[in-house]
Design a protein that fits this description.
- This protein has 591 residues and is of the alpha/beta class.
- The chain folds into three domains: 178 residues, D-Maltodextrin-Binding Protein, domain 2 (3-Layer(aba) Sandwich); 141 residues, D-Maltodextrin-Binding Protein, domain 2 (3-Layer(aba) Sandwich), CATH 3.40.190; 221 residues, 3-Layer(aba) Sandwich (Rossmann fold).
- It contains 20 helices and 20 strands.
- The chain has a six-stranded mixed beta sheet with strand order 2-3-1-4-12-5, sandwiched between helices.
- The longest helix has 19 residues.
- The protein is globular and about 80 Å long.
């Protein structure tokens, strides 16, 4: 599934970065539609098409699904378009706007389920990218961006003043750290799994934290703290603010004095707040990610619908509509921070509200943060099983002679840093006849990372065990017996309230002639699987000798997934991606 490029005149150059285009080549029919639509839109701008009242007799009707924050502005624009008899090919354009949470629309389109919308305006490009990465998804044709708004941290005035607002500026980690060290300053946010605001801010926070020593562990700890104050949606998180500015609700454990919030959401809150309550806005000095409100056509539209959709997009780009969007608290130019919008949102100099937005986060960074968030919110119980066969001594091209095992160990140590003290992690290794007749050996039992034993913690023991992993000379891959034994152990020790999973890393196929068959393994795994106590198997095929198809077949029996990486350095990101997939697939059970 892919997104299709449009003629330059339909790119919304003044309202955000041009969307990245990737995916399948556009169908010939759609290309023809867009070509004709370009001429039609040009004719409209030139005044060649009729604007007479007769256009109302047979209007082109469009259903537009929009993120709830921008839906009121688009509704107002659609009403003005009808009042002004805006036409496409002489027919009125009648747009009906429906407020729809972006993550819900994305879920529908990702699975190619039917939607009534011909046009979609989510709050962020990340939803478009997520859909275009899914082969079974509905076709989307992007046509630029409608508006933008930066993400910062809004606080009630009493809390903001205590941190020196507006004269004092903070980075993302400093702002988050301030809320962690002050029990009276509680920070709330929307669920990153459902909110682009929450995800983009959390990714920026994680990226900033990773720049310092121990930063990944610090970021995970911040996520753990933030997870206690999460709301399901952006609108719900605003409802957690104190209801008045008298201070009587400050300290109420159900209320948040600070929120991860967009400028527009703060503007809307301050514009409608009753009783004089308001928020002040911190713009982090290391840069603000932004929501960019892409405009996309959904599925295969008729020629009339495509022309009308592009006509309405062009209408939104006109100066009068830009002023309308600003009245609703949005920015419409990458080069301008409207003073009325900034002050309405609670921004004030010298807060860096006019600086350029940070570069959009990569898909890999977003997936890694989502994976870390998934295991952080629930806490994780993971048993990691690593292939120690002789082939793990093979060098990895481009690493200066490092072996598969060397790169695997480095990736596992990096992944370990993302877990908190509450997570439970264990380590097995396997090769043929590794421990007597058994193909596997338990190196570190699965226990809580923060538990003290002897002179160190479980994290210390795991770090040492990862670093000490070595390939077994002439060892073969005893995959099937190991997988069954490890899965029996993981299901038998299932812990309620945590994300339970088994992670197996292998660079080859089963080489133990005395083991059970693949069919027998799959049958036994299916018998052990309990939907009420889910333990998804995440099997990662590493390198050219591993079998991705077999990994998928085996893991699928447990509700898990098979993954493949060309180099062990990709293990961390693939593992986290698989954890996200397992979490969103409904394998949470009674967690």
């Amino acid at each position: 599934m892919g997104r299709h490029s449009l003629p330059d005149q339909y790119e919304a150059g003044g309202s955000g970065p041009r969307p990245r285009v990737r995916g399948r080549q556009v169908a010939v029919a759609t290309a023809l539609v867009l070509t004709v639509a370009g001429g039609a839109a040009g004719a409209v701008r030139s005044g060649l098409l009729s604007f007479g009242s007769s256009c109302r007799d047979h209007p082109v009707r469009l259903e537009l699904a929009a993120s709830p924050d921008i839906a009121p502005a688009l509704t107002a624009a659609a009403e003005r378009a009808r009042e002004n008899d805006i036409t496409s090919d002489g027919r009125c354009v009648a747009v009906t706007v429906t407020a729809s949470d972006s993550y819900k629309v994305a879920d529908t389109l990702s699975s190619d389920r039917k939607t009534d919308a011909q046009v979609w305006v989510p709050d962020s490009q990340l939803w478009i990218d997520r859909i275009t990465a899914t082969s079974a998804a509905t076709d989307l044709t992007p046509a630029g961006a409608v508006a933008s708004t930066p993400i910062g941290v809004a606080m009630v005035p009493m809390a903001a003043k205590s941190l020196g607002w507006p004269e004092k500026t903070y980075s993302w980690t400093e702002l988050a750290g301030a809320t962690m060290t002050d029990d009276s300053l509680k920070l709330g946010a929307a669920d990153p799994a459902r909110s682009a605001t929450g995800l983009l801010a959390l990714t920026q926070l994680s990226t900033a934290a990773a720049q310092v020593k121990g930063g990944q562990t610090q970021a995970a700890a911040m996520m753990k703290t933030l997870a206690q104050r999460i709301s399901d949606s952006d609108s719900q998180v605003v409802d957690t603010l104190p209801r008045d500015s008298s201070g009587t609700e400050l300290g109420n454990p159900k209320r948040n004095e600070a929120l991860v919030l967009t400028e527009q959401a703060a503007y809307a809150y301050n514009s409608s707040a009753d009783g004089g309550s308001s928020v002040d806005m911190f713009y982090p000095k290391d840069g603000s990610p932004q929501l960019d409100y892409p405009y996309a056509m959904v599925g295969q539209l008729t020629t009339d619908q495509s022309r009308a959709a592009l006509r309405f997009m062009n209408y939104l780009r006109q100066p009068a509509r830009a002023r309308l969007l600003q009245k609703y608290g949005f920015r419409t130019s990458a080069d301008e921070a409207p003073e009325a919008v900034v002050t309405g949102a609670g921004g004030s100099s010298p807060q860096p509200f006019a600086q350029d937005p940070v570069q959009p986060a990569t898909d890999t960074a977003l997936q890694e943060v989502l994976g870390t968030w998934t295991i952080t919110v629930q806490s994780a119980r993971l048993t990691t099983v690593v292939d120690a066969s002789g082939s793990m001594s093979e060098p990895v091209p481009g690493t200066g002679g490092q072996s598969r095992m060397d790169v695997t160990k480095a990736s596992l140590l990096q992944a370990l840093a993302t877990f908190t003290a509450e997570d439970e992690i264990g380590l097995w290794e396997f090769s043929t006849k590794l421990d007597g007749d058994r193909d596997y050996r338990v190196l570190v039992p699965t226990e809580r990372l923060g538990d003290q034993k002897g002179g160190g913690t479980q994290r210390d023991r795991l770090s040492s065990a990862f670093a000490a992993l070595q390939p077994v000379p002439n060892g073969a891959t005893g995959l099937y017996d190991t997988t069954l034994a490890a899965y029996k152990s993981a299901t038998a020790s299932y812990t309620k309230g945590k994300f339970n999973a088994l992670v197996i890393l292998t660079d080859g196929v089963n080489q133990d002639p005395g083991s059970i068959t693949r069919a027998k393994l799959i049958s036994e795994l299916q018998k052990l699987t309990d939907p009420g106590r889910p333990v998804p198997l995440i099997m990662i095929a590493v390198g050219p000798d591993a079998d991705r198809q077999e990994a998928e077949e085996i893991a699928k029996a447990t509700g898990g997934s098979g993954q493949s990486v060309t180099t062990p350095s990709q293990i961390q990101s693939v593992m986290l991606k698989a954890i996200v997939a397992a979490g969103t697939a409904g394998t949470g059970g009674d967690n």
